[in-house]
Amino acid sequence: MTFGEKVRNLRQKCGLSQEQLAEKTGVTKRTVRGWETESRYPRRMEIYDSLAQALGCSTEYLRGEQEAFYTKASEEYGSRGMRQAQEFLEDAQAMFAGGDLSPEDIDMVGRHFMEMFWEAKENARKYTPKKYRKTSDSGDDAASSEES
Q1: Every domain of the chain and the residues it spans
Q2: Mean pLDDT of 81-99
Q3: Which whole number is the average pLDDT over 68-92?
Q4: Has this prediction a pTM greater than 0.70?
Q5: Helix residue ranges per DSSP H, the chain
């Protein structure tokens, strides 16, 4: 079950409209609709906590492994990073569509692909021009260049 399906099912069981859920969680109705119908995910972990409270479920139920991966990508790299993470996993999953892997093996492969994504992102930071780096990265570079 996808994140959007979980939100919609729980919202309907609680007898809440999208607007009421939005008010309870501090987001807009459009955001709730995006979660339910457009395969979008919360951009911050705190939203999962408020959603879980409003829907009477655990945060872990809402945040499967993929959803946590997408949220972390969004927090670290913005909406572009989240789109890249989604495309990366979708492409990886397409390689195994219709195959003979067990669900456990598919989960293991997915975890390895997530690890590869983070490693690739970290390696890409090394080659980012200084003017585009975040301030914490540029401070580290300045310190290392003084030592050389």
Answers
A1: 3-62, 65-132
A2: 81
A3: 85
A4: no
A5: 3-13, 18-25, 29-37, 45-55, 59-62, 65-95, 103-126, 135-147
Q: Encoding tokens for residue 44?
A: 């911050």
3-62 adopts what CATH topology? Answer: 434 Repressor (Amino-terminal Domain) (1.10.260)
Q: State the sign of the Cα–Cα–Cα–Cα dihedral 83, 89, 94, 95.
A: positive
Closest among 74, 42, 76, 79 to 59, alpha carbons compared: 42
Cα–Cα dist 47/54, whole Å: 10
| Angle, in degrees to the nearest 10, between helices 45-55 and 3-13 | 30
**Crossing angle of the two packed helices 18-25 and 45-55, in degrees rounded to 10:** 120
pLDDT recorded at residue 77: 85
Lowest mean pLDDT among 31-45, 46-60, 61-75, 88-102: 88-102
Greatest extent of the chain over all pairs of C-alpha atoms, in Å: 63
